[in-house]
């Protein structure tokens, strides 16, 4: 996923394993074989489907090749398009106008948000159209694709933020925040364009691990309680403010990532969607889990990437339904694709056969360990009210415009008012 997609998360809602909200369903077939998948066709008619994507260059290039392969094997046509703007905003316009895509790719945070939309509906329940067994995926992944017994997509990867490091500048990856600070102190010299850390730290998705390190939750989707102003989250902000001292002055995504990619910072905190790009920029790139804070593992938000099934499929020809769901089945159950994505893109597999094969790279294993330390992003529609107030609070703290306790108090008040 690219920087625009991650930045969007602050405004549109999080992701979660929908354990409390989703029912487990059984799809109608025997399931894919985990290697070549199903083509989703009825054995005779081929169809075409529109797929909207908003990916990094490396991800987009890889997906284009896979779609070519799918089209060659099935005879179906997939018209992959960029949405022409921020994806959620384009969907909000296109679907009511009857001009939306048949499928799109995004983290599963939108399942709860869109599944409750009725006028018009935004998602299509493909329970009766998908033949792959949901047991092919990890429990968190299969739950992420469901809401109230409906199947609204198929999962292909998980993600979270972890710690990148330049091994030419860092002898040993830090295990604790104190160790990380010691290394950052050695390199931080902003007057000469050198920094301790590359981190878009005002993005709540990327900053969540530290804010929630002491056990606080920004939002509890089970109780619908706002925890932004809890003592635990305020304590976590102290760790986040420590990191703020070592970042470039502009907290924007592009300004931050370039410091690390250009060798001007020993560390970066970012997601696996940057692995393919950074591997080509930093010769001795390493990835490890986020450093502990007072012995606590940062509880970073994690999400599941899905092929979503759009409500446009409800009135589409069966051949279009087969093309869209067939691509999702073929892609998400193809072991070679999932393994290659893990190696080249840093995607954390959720296909159980790949998860269990022991062939994941050290970088992907690091992201997977951080997923284990983290928490699923809430997908409850109420989470949509959390991102903007928290982002604005973090920006005020970063720019020394407001004390962190007061900033979190204000954000919490704004969230509760909006819920």
TrEMBL record:
Q: Where is the composition biased (Gly residues)?
A: 31-46
Renumbered to this chain, region (Disordered) spans 31-50
What are the entry keywords?
Signal, Sugar transport, Transport
A Pfam family name for this chain? SBP_bac_8
Q: Which PANTHER family match?
A: MALTOSE-BINDING PERIPLASMIC PROTEIN (PTHR30061), MALTOSE_MALTODEXTRIN-BINDING PERIPLASMIC PROTEIN (PTHR30061:SF50)
Name the protein family.
Answer: Belongs to the bacterial solute-binding protein 1 family.
Its name, as the record gives it, is Maltodextrin-binding protein
- Which species is the source of this protein? Halorubrum ezzemoulense (Halorubrum chaoviator)
